[in-house]
Amino acid sequence: MTVQGTSSPLLRVLVCSALALMAVQAIAQSAPAVPAPPSGSSPSRAEGVLRTVALIMGEPNYSIDGGYQELEEGFYSAPELLPGERMFAPINEIVVALGGEATLAADSRSALFSLNGRSVRLTAGSTDAEVDGKRVTADKAPEWRNGNLWVSVWWVFDQLGAYSKWDKPRQRFTASFILPNSKKQAGVARGGAVVEGNLGEQNEAFWASAQGVTVGDVVLGYQNADGGWPKLERDSSLTVPVNRAALSGFKAKSTIDNDATTKQIIALARAFKGSGQVLFRDGAVRGIEYLLAAQHRSGGWQQYWPEPQGYKARITFNDDAIANVLEILRDVAARRGDFAFAGLDLSRRAAAAYDAGLGLILKTQIVVKGKLTGWCAQYDENTLKPGMGRAFELPSISGGESVNVVRFLMSIDKPSPAVVRAVQGAVSWLDAAKLSGIKRVRREDRTLEYGFDFVVEKDPKAEPLWARFYDTTEGKPLFSSRDSKPRANFDEVAYERRVKYNWYTSEAAPMLKTDYPAWLQRTGQRSVLRKKWWEVEPGAAEAGD
């Protein structure tokens, strides 16, 4: 192409570019479906925020700026590789996490993704697509799986303005976006005097203060219509209204995971007691009604309710979920303490739910070689057999969650013979399962992705540790990675899971040293501990364990 009457080389280039763009637009408007070209360039440095998405072959998760989330909440979906080294995966959770919108239509098996002023519409089984309302041809026909649309990730992200790369040695796909600041991206406010992590630590004087009323209002403000609460990060501020727009997918759903719902119920009960404001009492009652409605026919509680999916439908002891629920129901049933306001009908129903929940605990204690041990972190909701949680949390006996189950059982005023047997069996197992003479050590290493690693070293003076998980046949420590394959040793765990998950716990130590002796004294039972290992020099008398 030549341009007459232009003396400046730069001007000639600009004019040619403009003419070329006009020609392309004219062709696009007259032609039906054409292949949509990749962006082929890095993101602009325009004002905004840089967000980088990463997916790794074989791992059922994605990360945004290094923060990991599950690819499909509750399932174990891992991306697949298409010809040309392009990934095939569901992306609706990713788009929403980036601040966009993802709308799935089950009847037409289609999806509309919108981000940063751009949109892509796709339908399962067809390469016909729409980008910003114009017909184009996708590089791969999407597929409808488990109520979700799987797509060619590279192609879709390119249409949404990303700069994509494939790292073959690491089998890792990344897509970088420059996105404007939005309310969703701003997320939930962090930090301050009262955060999600210390909500339960506020005293009686706080709840009678003006600040206590403010926090009570904030807690009420993000209660869901079903009466429960979503799970927030530990440093989420509760002195300003929670940005609900930043909560999407399962992040917006009610759960008992990580103290969610139970912590808020207690906070509102205390806010009512301190301020006398009826709306706080009513919010707490709605929360209690949620717990009663969510109880599974087995007597337990699922991690999420209603409409849980995947492992989130499991009966869960993880993070003390069921123990927390039962402690509230016990107080509601007795109409005591923070729940003295409970009516007779609510009290009666809470008592029945409590009895069913206690029965579930006794029924699900794991037996190995004829001996009672501990509990799995989660159980299949239909068979009540130990179940898998996240991809690296295999069916097992939990060295962590079992501790607070025992604490709950020891808190029962008049334990039945069945409860006593459960406590003694679990205590005996925890004592035998302790790992002596080792410690987990952090090693700095700037050549590694996170700049450090964790290793296990021998140390005869180290305090006892417990594995987070033990296998259900031999009772030996159990480890895994995101591939869900069992491993016998910590050093066999993949690097990311080795440094981003705590495979050891010391929670059993204070329970065995303090809580158990107090329980023995109160109930008149005899100790099943072989010896008080904490009263001897660490490593000396434990060498044979």
UniProtKB/TrEMBL annotation:
Native organism taxonomy: Bacteria, Pseudomonadati, Pseudomonadota, Betaproteobacteria, Rhodocyclales
Protein name listed in UniProt: Copper amine oxidase-like N-terminal domain-containing protein
Leader peptide range in chain numbering: 1-28
Keywords: Signal
Gene3D superfamilies: 1.50.10.20, Copper amine oxidase-like, N-terminal domain
NCBIfam families per UniProt: pec_lyase
Organism: Viridibacterium curvum
Domain Copper amine oxidase-like N-terminal residue range list: 82-169
Pfam families for the chain: Cu_amine_oxidN1, Pec_lyase
InterPro entries: Cu_amine_oxidase-like_N, Mao_N_sf, Pectate_lyase
